[in-house]
């Protein structure tokens, strides 16, 4: 199963904060600009892309306002792994 519903197997997928949308969190593929809500869920069939999302909210798409939090890897991190301190 690929991370990005658009790229399928590949894709540069990141958890992001949309700063122009009151710091709304989301997931975005920087390869094809597809955005969706959560990595925990399968992307909504009605997933959007960054430019459309911004337009819906009356903004011009500005990639500088999508802050990368962390890259989403294909294999999720172990939930129980101890954090290094
Ligand atoms: Zn993609």
Describe this structure in words.
The protein is mainly beta. The protein has a domain at 13-71. It contains one helix and five strands, in the order ββββαβ. It has one helix at 50-56; strands at 13-18, 24-29, 34-36, 48-49, 66-71. Strands 4-3-2-1-5 form a five-stranded antiparallel β-sheet. The protein is globular. The protein binds zinc ion.
Mean pLDDT, rounded to whole units? 82
Q: Looking at the chains present, what oligomeric state does this protein adopt?
A: single chain
Q: Indicate the structural class.
A: mainly beta
What is the overall silhouette? globular
Helix content: under 10%
Task: Outline the secondary-structure elements.
Blueprint: E1 13-18, E2 24-29, E3 34-36, E4 48-49, H1 50-56, E5 66-71
Antiparallel strand pairs: 1-2, 1-5, 2-3, 3-4
The structure holds zinc ion (ZN).
Zinc ion is lined by residues 4, 6-7, 11, 29, 31-32, 34.
Brief overview, please?
The protein has one helix spanning 50-56; strands at residues 13-18, 24-29, 34-36, 48-49, 66-71. The protein has 85 residues and is mostly beta strands. It has a domain at 13-71.
